[in-house]
Amino acid sequence: MKKIEAIIRPHKLDDVRTALGDKINGMSVLEIRGFGRQRGHTEVYRGAEYKIDFVPKIRLEIICADQDAESIIETICASARTGKIGDGKIFISDIQDIVRIRTGERGEAVI
Predict the structure, then answer these.
(1) CA distance 34 to 81
(2) H or E element in which residue 28 lies
(3) What does 51-108 look like in DSSP terms, one character per residue?
(4) Distances in Å between the alpha carbon of 85 and those of 45, 100, 102, 110?
(5) How far is residue 92 from each of residues 7, 11, 46, 47, 86, measured CA to CA in Å?
(6) 61 - beta bridge partners?
(7) How far apart are CA 95 and CA 93, in angstroms?
(8) What's the confidence (pLDDT) of residue 34?
(9) pLDDT, tens digit, for every residue of 5-59?
(10) Which of 6, 32, 40, 102 is the most exposed place for a label (fewest CB within 10 A)?
(11) CA 44, CA 75: separation in Å to the nearest integer?
């Protein structure tokens, strides 16, 4: 099993969700803030300039079977890409086990 964590631009969430369609059984979505090479930006509000150090992003968390991971990753890349700095990153981790709290079931059947 794999855990796929994708950091994407907020306005690309609907595109990614639509593109994933029935490739996934579920996902978690978190609103986060951070920076990478993008290093934030400045905005002007009522004539004063403000530096925004942390850029708003969305983090998706998806657990999937090993054989589904590559297809999901390719779909996220294709649907979240704008070609500009700040498009995001995808992190892939191995999952040792999963337990459904309600029933105590374990393993891939829980996905």
Answers:
(1) 18
(2) strand 28-34
(3) EE-SEEEEEEEEEE-HHHHHHHHHHHHHHH--SSTT--EEEEEE----B-TTT--BSG
(4) 24, 39, 42, 37
(5) 12, 23, 43, 43, 19
(6) 5, 28
(7) 6
(8) 84
(9) 999 999 999 999 999 999 999 999 999 998 777 666 676 778 887 777 788 999 9
(10) 102
(11) 36
Only one residue has tokens 């779909």, namely: 75
- Using the structure block, give the residue that is written with the tokens 């992003």: 57
Q: How far apart are CA 33 and CA 58, in angstroms?
A: 8
Of all residues in the chain, the percent with pLDDT exceeding 70 is: 95
Please report how the helices 13-20 and 66-80 are oriented relative to each other, as an axis angle in degrees rounded to 10: 140
Tokens 């459904």, located at residue: 100
